[in-house]
Amino acid sequence: MSASNTTTITSIGAPNRRNTELAMLVFAVAIPVFAFANAGLAKHGTVPAGLAEYGLGMGLLAGIAHLIVRKFAPYSDPLMLPIATLLNGLGLVLIWRLDQEPVLGKAMAPGQLEWSTMGIVLFVVVLIFLKDHRILQRYTYISMVLALCLLIAPVFFPPVYGARIWITLPGLGSLQPGEFAKIIIAIFFAGYLMVKRDALALASRRFMGLYLPRGRDLGPILVIWALSLLILVFETDLGTSLLFFGLFVIMLYVATERTSWIVFGLLLSAAGAVAVGSTEAHVKVRVQDWLHPLALQNGGVTETAQSRYAFGSGGLFGSGLGEGYSRLIGGIASKSDYILATVGEELGLAGVMAILLLYGLLIERGLRTALAARDPFGKLLAVGLSGGLALQVFVVAGGVTGLIPLTGMTMPFLAQGGSSVIANWALVAILLRISDTARRPAPSPAPSPDAEATQVVRSQ
Amino acid sequence: MSELTLTVMRLGFLAVLWLFVIVAVQVIRSDLFGTRVTQRGARRADDRSRPPQQRQQQVQQPPRPQPQNNRQRRGAPTKLVVAEGSLAGTTVALQGQTITLGRAHDSTIVLDDDYASSRHARIYPDTDGQWIVEDLGSTNGTYLDRNRLTTPTPVPLGAPIRIGKTVIELRK
């Protein structure tokens, strides 16, 4: 009897999708080159001088990253690298375009290109040296200490534009440790919740449809909450504090499947935000700007209002790259915090939606990786990393569009900022590593010594 | 630079950006993976809906290759398939011989399973060709669907026989 009509449940192994990735990557490099030519033509009437170098450089970086993925993570997700490359490339073009406005300060695109190169180098290093994401599980509590150090360190440095989120290394420049802490704390949460999730999920009483955890199990969430409030008070940075608390609540919810954690998280963060927002001076200013964007400051409206004007004047299809008036946003952060306003003005609603969808796809691939991952640590880590990315996009996009008070965070990959781009490339590398493990076809079982016994025995 | 060229480039850029998004979604569509259930559910439903008398009438028919979705013609089981467990995928043709299951090395199917006894169960055809499963006094029992076997029991087509972590089915 042939086995051809055997009906069984077969697992469809995810095929190796490296060629798809390569095709998407070529596409992802071509789009920013096109955008660069477009911006140059609009701004100066000629194709920008560095176009070929820029295209070749981007192509080279993307090609190296692709070859490394092909070699070291052959079964990983085919979309993350192209999407990250596209966002990074578009970010470089937008920064170059803003560099053409002399009022916005010195050129930052070359610097950002260097940071992106370093980001890809870190991406390659992570893929080569992190053979298995479960190794990170060993460093659960070390990562906690490290993340706390990174979070607390900026308190000892002078505030930059009102927020203490920078540490300055003499001779090396400054960096935002919060971006790296985002990854490290996700590792800690994943390791911690993997061990504790049963206690957090099962030891609870039911009250009004909500599972109320025991008082002693509430400890960790209260500690993290207090910590994020301390960040808010001492570093005066809403974004970082929101990111860490939100990340913890997301991972707690995913680990325990209890909606009550989300309710508690929202209540606690609302209470904390109101308390700090009405007392702390710097945060108060941000909240006032958010509530009253048209209030006059120094003879003009607030930056928040300016960025909303930018979105409004962009309309549906935008003014075209290089033809907007992003210089009028003024302020200090038009290349980092407000870069989405430039997208909104020059690419319009259609462009903003495409960019947000790209982030959405990147996050979706991360969550898909979490679904496919077989080990609980990998699942939680993938959820944590993509959840952190999602929160960051929400905080920035929400701040720029006026949904929540603006805070000093960067749009991952798109915005100017060295720490951000490096940390996010590392984040994508870890996600690719988890997805490579998750999608790797199961090894064929070793032939058992008893295999000969499993055969037809004819008694006649 | 003429206004027209710039407008074309501006809209062209948006189109290309959206094209990337759409292609990415297509890649996700073609990238679905996981498990695929092949016919088994449909076939079991067929078997349940079929009255047992009809099954016994058909038992005598010789096995023959059949179209897979044909509801009309059904034959006796022609093979025994290990659906789950470490031996998943193993098939044994049913040709009227008795099949023994257990950890003993002379069993037809040697179960590498902590919950299996050395001589755990046997599956044999009775006089009119109906396949019967019988527990041979095993420690942890043999289950047909969800019921622990106490007596020799006829095995319907596609019903799961459970021994420890191993699941066995008779199929056409």
TrEMBL record, chain A:
Entry's Gene Ontology molecular function annotations: lipid-linked peptidoglycan transporter activity
InterPro entries for this protein: FtsW/RodA
Membrane topology: Multi-pass membrane protein
Disordered as annotated region, ranges: 439-460
UniProt subcellular location: Membrane
Transmembrane region(s): 22-41, 47-67, 79-98, 113-130, 139-157, 177-195, 215-232, 238-255, 262-283, 338-359, 380-407, 413-432
GO cellular component, one term: cell division site
Primary localization: membrane
Keywords, ordered alphabetically: Cell cycle, Cell division, Cell shape, Membrane, Transmembrane, Transmembrane helix
GO BP annotations listed: cell division; regulation of cell shape
UniProt-recorded name of the protein: Cell division protein FtsW, lipid II flippase
Pfam families associated with the record: FTSW_RODA_SPOVE
TrEMBL record, chain B:
Biased composition (Low complexity): 51-61
Region called Disordered, residue ranges: 38-75
Keyword Phosphoprotein assigned: yes
FHA domain ranges (all copies): 99-149
Keyword terms: Phosphoprotein
Pfam families xref list: FHA
PANTHER family on file: NUCLEAR INHIBITOR OF PROTEIN PHOSPHATASE-1
Official protein name in the record: Forkhead associated (FHA) domain, binds pSer, pThr, pTyr
Organism for this UniProt entry: Actinacidiphila yanglinensis
